[in-house]
Design a protein that fits this description.
31% of the residues lie in helices and 23% in strands. It is an alpha/beta fold. The structure holds NADP nicotinamide-adenine-dinucleotide phosphate.
Length: 351
C-alpha cells in the first residue's frame, strides 16, 4: 500500500497536464490517482484521450487510468494540480476549492485575485498566508494557490535576489517565447516557421502585473505590490521549449557586476532550505559564456527548474542589462506547480 499523498490533475491531456504526469512519475511524496479533462475525454482511458507528445513514454499505470469529468467527486484527492485554459478554470477551479480541495493552478484566471496567493517558492513562500482569508478555507479547508505566467517566472527569479538586496526601480523586458507556451496545437506552423510574431494576447499586462505582485509584500492588509515600473514586449518565436528574455534594469543604488553575479549564484531560499524534492539545488545560475543562455542548450539545467542568466553588461538606458532563460512548461508551469504543492505540504496546508 502506498503511503504517498494522492493527487489529481485537471487538464491532464494538455501540454502542461502531460508535463505533470512526466514529472510526477516516481515523485517521492505525491502519486497521481485521479485525472480529468473536458467532456471530450471523460470516460476514456488516458492513453486514448491524450495525444502524448513528450519524449518519455506514458507511464503504464497512468495510461490505464479512466478520465473523469472536470467536477469534484467522492474519489477526488485533496490536492489537485490544474492545467486548464483560463475560461474553463474560471468555472471549474472554484468548484473544487468549494469541495475542500487544495487547487494548485497554472491558469491566469485567479492569479491576481486579492486573496489568492501567486507563488514562486524561492521568491515569496510567505504569500501562502493569504490562503487563510479564502472563504473555502474557512468553510472546509479548500483553497486555491496559483503559479505565475511562464514568462514572469524567469524574469522574477532574476529580479528577486537583486530586489531583495538593492531594490529594483525600473525594468524593460523583451521576451522570445517558445511555441509550446501556447498549448497544443498552438500557433499554426505556417504562421511561426521562419517568423516572429510580436503579439501574445494578454501577455504583456500579465507579465507586468504578476511581477509586481510576486515581488510585493504580504501584511494583514493583504499584498502590497512592489513599486517597480515595468515595460514588457512579448514575442512568439519558432523555439519548441524555453522562454528567453532580454532585460534592462535600474537599481536603487550603485552595484557592481560581480556583486550582482554573486547575488544570483548564491541565491538559496525556502525550497532549498526545506529540501523540497522538486527544488533545484541552485535556482539561479549565471553562465559567464558570451553566447549563453540558449533555449536548446540551457533549458534543462536544474532539471528544467533553474533560471539561467548570462550576458550581464552595462546598459545605456538604465544600469544593467542581461539575458534570462527558463523552461516554460517545467519551471514556468508543471514544475512550478509541483514545487508549490511541496511547499504547501511542508507548510502544513494539506492537513
Ligand atoms: P492545452 O494544451 O490547450 O490543454 C488544455 C487542457 O484543458 C486539456 O487537458 C483540455 O482537455 C482541458 N480543457 C479544455 N477545455 C476544458 C473544459 N471546458 N473543461 C475541462 N477541461 C478542459 O493548454 P496548456 O498549454 O496545457 O495550458 C493549460 C493552462 O496552463 C493554461 O491556462 C495556460 O495558460 C497555462 N500555462 C501554460 C504554459 C505553457 O507553457 N504551455 C505555461 C504556464 C501556464 P481535452 O484534451 O479533453 O480537450
Amino acid at each position: 500500500m502506498t503511503t504517498k499523498i494522492p493527487v489529481g490533475i485537471l487538464g491532464a491531456t494538455g501540454t502542461v497536464g502531460q508535463r505533470f504526469i512526466q514529472l510526477l512519475e516516481n515523485h517521492p511524496w505525491f502519486e497521481i490517482t485521479w485525472l480529468a479533462a473536458s467532456d471530450r475525454s471523460a470516460g476514456k482511458k488516458y492513453s486514448e484521450a491524450a495525444t502524448w507528445r513528450l519524449s518519455t513514454p506514458i507511464p503504464d499505470r497512468i495510461a490505464a487510468l479512466t478520465m473523469n469529468a472536470a467536477a469534484p467527486a467522492s474519489d477526488t484527492p485533496k490536492l489537485v494540480f490544474a492545467a486548464l485554459d483560463a475560461a474553463a478554470a474560471r468555472e471549474i477551479e472554484p468548484a473544487f476549492a468549494d469541495a475542500g480541495c487544495a487547487v494548485v493552478s497554472n491558469s491566469s484566471a485567479f492569479r491576481m485575485a486579492e486573496d489568492v496567493p501567486l507563488v514562486i517558492p524561492e521568491i515569496n513562500a510567505n504569500h501562502t498566508e493569504l490562503i487563510k482569508r479564502q472563504k473555502w478555507y474557512k468553510k472546509n479547508g479548500g483553497f486555491m494557490v496559483t503559479n505565475p505566467n511562464c514568462s514572469a517566472i524567469g524574469l522574477v527569479m532574476a529580479l528577486g535576489p537583486l530586489h531583495r538586496r538593492w531594490g529594483v526601480e525600473k525594468v524593460f523586458v523583451a521576451t522570445m517565447q517558445a511555441v509550446s507556451g501556447a498549448g497544443y496545437p498552438g500557433v499554426p506552423s505556417l504562421d511561426i516557421l521562419g517568423n516572429v510574431i510580436p503579439y501574445i494576447g494578454g501577455e504583456e499586462p500579465k507579465l507586468e502585473a504578476e511581477s509586481r505582485k510576486l515581488l510585493g509584500t504580504v501584511s494583514a492588509a493583504g499584498i502590497a505590490d512592489a513599486n517597480i515600473v515595468l515595460s514588457a514586449h512579448c514575442n512568439r518565436v519558432a523555439v519548441e521549449d524555453g522562454h528567453m528574455e532580454s532585460v534592462s534594469i535600474k537599481l536603487s543604488k550603485p552595484v557592481t557586476a560581480d556583486e550582482i553575479i554573486q547575488a544570483w549564484n548564491d541565491f538559496r531560499c525556502v525550497p532549498q532550505k526545506l529540501k523540497l524534492p522538486t527544488a533545484p539545488e541552485q535556482p539561479v545560475i549565471y553562465d559567464p559564456a558570451q553566447d549563453r543562455p540558449q533555449p536548446r542548450l540551457d533549458r534543462d539545467r536544474g532539471r528544467g527548474m533553474a533560471a539561467v542568466i548570462g550576458r550581464l553588461r552595462p546598459c545605456n538606458l538604465f544600469d544593467w542589462r542581461f539575458t534570462v532563460l527558463s523552461h516554460n512548461t517545467i519551471r514556468g508551469a508543471a514544475g512550478a506547480a509541483i514545487l508549490n504543492g511541496e511547499l504547501l505540504k511542508a507548510q502544513g496546508y494539506l492537513g
